[in-house]
Amino acid sequence: LALYFHTGEREEKCIIEDVPSDTLVIGNYKVQRWDVHKHDFLESAPGLGMFVTVTAPSAEVQMSKLYGPQGTFSFTSEMPGEHIICLQSNSTRFLAFAGSKLRIHLDIRVGEHFFDESAVQAKDKVNEVKLGLEHLIEQVHHVTKEQNYEREREEKFRKTSEETNSNILWWAIVQTMILISIGIWQIKSLRDFFISKKLV
Asked: What is d(CA 28, CA 85) in angstroms, rounded to the nearest whole number?
């Protein structure tokens, strides 16, 4: 997931990432500040940091940390579900003057592991192949975990759908019985009325 969005200083922006349990999530971000003279976003926002907060599906704060204007954060999910990732600048200016527009570039990768660059650049081809295989195995484990998580979600959704359909069916049967009962009662009432008036 790679995106960018605009926000004001001290304004909190959040995204929701649905991840399986025991999965590494890595986020890279860069903050740019709007320059009123150049009418463009500067390449960097020196002196401005970002608070990154991650809230687990249980509403428990899993991570809360202050980073610089550009950085990388990571966390491992403890349970499956929607994790809320929030970013907020640490502007020290008064709220009334903290109206500068910011652009935040955000790249989130789910299930990827930190790759050892020094090992990749090693001249020993055996180590390179071994590292590549380990990385592939990790990717296979992640795909399997993701498929199991999606299967569990699909099973839960199917169960909910079947329960809803069953409830709708019973409600339709009850409605039909009520309508038939009302119809029979109306016919009997009309028959009694006609008999009492000696029309039949």
From this structure: 12
Using left for φ > 0, alpha for ψ between -120 and 50, and beta otherwise, residue 81 falls in left
Provide the pLDDT confidence category of residue 97 given band limits of 50, 70 and 90: very low
Within a 10 A sphere around the Cβ of 11, how many other Cβ atoms? 15
Percentage with pLDDT > 90 across the chain: 36
For the residues 183-190, what does the mean pLDDT come to? 92
The model's pTM is 0.62
- In Å, what is the CA distance from 139 to each residue of 15, 45, 64? 24, 35, 28
Q: Which domains does the chain have, with CATH numbers?
A: 2-114 (2.60.120.680)
Q: Map residue 129 onto helix, strand or coil.
A: helix
